[in-house]
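Box S2. Input/output pair 1.
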Amino acid sequence: MNGALTGPTADAPDRATRAQRLRVSLLDVAAWLANRLPARVVGAAADAAGELWYRATPARAAQARANLGRVVAHLAATGTGSARARAADDDPAALERLVRAAYRHAARTYAELIRAAAVVREAPGRTRIETPDAVDAAFATRPAVFSSLHFGSLQATEAILLTRNETTITAPMETLGDPALQAFMTRARSASGVRLVSLEAARRELRAALGRGEYVGVIGDRDIIGGGVPVPFFGAPAPLPVGPALLAIESSAPIHVAAVRRLRGERYAGRLETILPPGGAVATGPGARRARVEALLAQEAAAFERLIADAPEQWWSVFFPIWPDLEPEPRP
């Protein structure tokens, strides 16, 4: 099922090598320590790691620069987003500050995965819900598809979703080639209580969960495995995975687009928007089905734009190709 969360599942290859086990042992030590240190200490260490990462990976920075350049150009043209982001449209130094900030936030994402248990415990009390009515309405309806993106804190997003309801959330995740790392990541990703399934079983498992009146969670901002449908995204066509739209159409369930971004002081802000699938009598056939998928994906892309506009530097998909027509260029 396209539109899956990137990460591990409970499935894993047979045996880990000694080197793989050693690496995960070090991660276990880091996780033990990170879950006991204050969030500000871990965050500061992640920021420092992000700065080193920025200096060490110029090709990756070029990809982020190109993607963020397109985002801020669209924000400037439409008068949306923050003044800081819009200013980066015609100020190379301001754009570079966004690129560096993107590295720091990406490093914080990995740090939050390592200290997942602490984030799950702390995030609900540190998060300001900016759309409380939409959130209350979302959890009053079952089944539903929760669609998020590689933005802000996925650990905090899952923690808040799981603490606001007692209904199972099923999410697909990739299987890693490293079985020891697979087990570590599965433990971390399961800390919030989400039920993980493999990509191979995702379509069947997610449809079954919706059929039971439960929730499913998918990531929909990057076409990782191919087969996505191009829709307008920050002013240019970008292929988005069809998973969320297909699940909504097949189950008549709403799509709740949700994300949690980081604020200063190790705090968070969360927002949610709801997209309703077409109701009533609709045309049938491959052409009509594709039109419905495209319409839902276009609405989802627009919701993603509004979430990203709050803090483009927290959208960590910028390190990967998003638009087929956009080629990264080295820094002048």
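Box S3. Input/output pair 2.
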Amino acid sequence: MTHDEIQGWLDRYVAAWRSYDPVAIGELFAEDAEYRYHPWDEPIRGRAEIVRAWVAPDGAESTRDEPDSWDARYEPYAVEGDRAVAIGWSRYFASGETPEKLYHNCYLLQFAGDGRCRSFVEFYIEQRT
């Protein structure tokens, strides 16, 4: 994978998050992918389960982030073969344009030969203001 390919994947990741479109989400991940929201979590296993977790976690669609309530930007920090580390930020707005919460993110990524993510591990920390 190249830096540009990883950036494209990250951009599609944000777009899928904005839309909650099951097809767009599914296109990001390999059939046998593992996804961890926290490094210590038991992984969500398989594309179908990852899509389900994104679209309706625990059957509660109300837990989705509203489209205009957040913004995010991630970029590759290091790329080696099929593995990458990405860093960036996610910010949530209470109202207007002033962020209520700002998170710094780090993703550990491993990709399959077709460019879909096989392993996703998220680390994040909220910035104190």
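Caption for Box S3: The chain has a mean pLDDT of 91. Residues 74 and 88 are 4 Å apart (CA to CA).
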